[in-house]
């Protein structure tokens, strides 16, 4: 069985980070993804909102670096939970529990880069099943350019 989600989108609100009694961090925020198509010659854009949940070190990194409007690459799994509200009605919530995140840049960083010669930095963060977090950084755009230079088309 496979339960895997990959999203690239923009953070819709500042991440809300809480620490449980045992010190474990949990971050929650919304991520917007969009797709466009033409209907009767007009461009139509559909935006989906996803509830993202990050745990432990990934949540702590999110707290320090992720802001509203940032573009993120997120990998994780779909998780649905249910509870009874105060009126006894069954409620459901579907979330993406993230285990990998790459920061693709911010609007302000993109604007700043167009004015300066310094490249933006992508930061990839991944949490494995044991809770170990790995992080690596690379100049934005450089990897893509190097990979596409030798393509035959």
CATH architecture descriptor name: Beta Barrel
Strand numbers in spatial order across the main sheet: 1-3-4-6-5
Taking pLDDT < 50 over at least 5 consecutive residues as the criterion, the unreliable ranges are: 113-121, 137-153
Largest sheet: 5 strands, mixed, barrel
Radius of gyration computed on alpha carbons: 18 Å
The secondary structure category is alpha+beta
Structural domain tally: 1
Oligomer: single chain
CATH class: Mainly Beta
Distance between the first and last residues' Cα: 37 Å
Helix content: 10-25%
Give the helices and strands as they follow along the chain: EEEEHEEHEEH
CATH overall fold name: OB fold (Dihydrolipoamide Acetyltransferase, E2P)
Count of alpha and pi helical runs = 3
Question: Could you say which overall geometry the principal axes of the C-alpha atoms support?
Answer: globular
- Classified in CATH, the superfamily is Nucleic acid-binding proteins
Average predicted local confidence, pLDDT: 79
* Total number of beta strands: 8
Strand content: over 45%
Short description:
With 153 residues, this protein is an alpha+beta fold. 17% of the residues lie in helices and 55% in strands.
Features:
OB fold (Dihydrolipoamide Acetyltransferase, E2P), 3 helices, 8 strands, disordered C terminus
Write structural notes for this entry.
The protein has helices at 56-65, 107-115, 142-148, and strands spanning 5-11, 16-19, 25-39, 42-55, 71-84, 90-105, 121-127, 133-139. With 153 residues, it is α+β, with helices and mostly antiparallel strands. It has a single domain (5-148), classed as OB fold (Dihydrolipoamide Acetyltransferase, E2P) (Beta Barrel), CATH 2.40.50. It has a 5-stranded mixed β-barrel. A hairpin with a 2-residue loop joins β3 (25-39) and β4 (42-55). Residues 113-121 and 137-153 have low confidence and may be disordered.
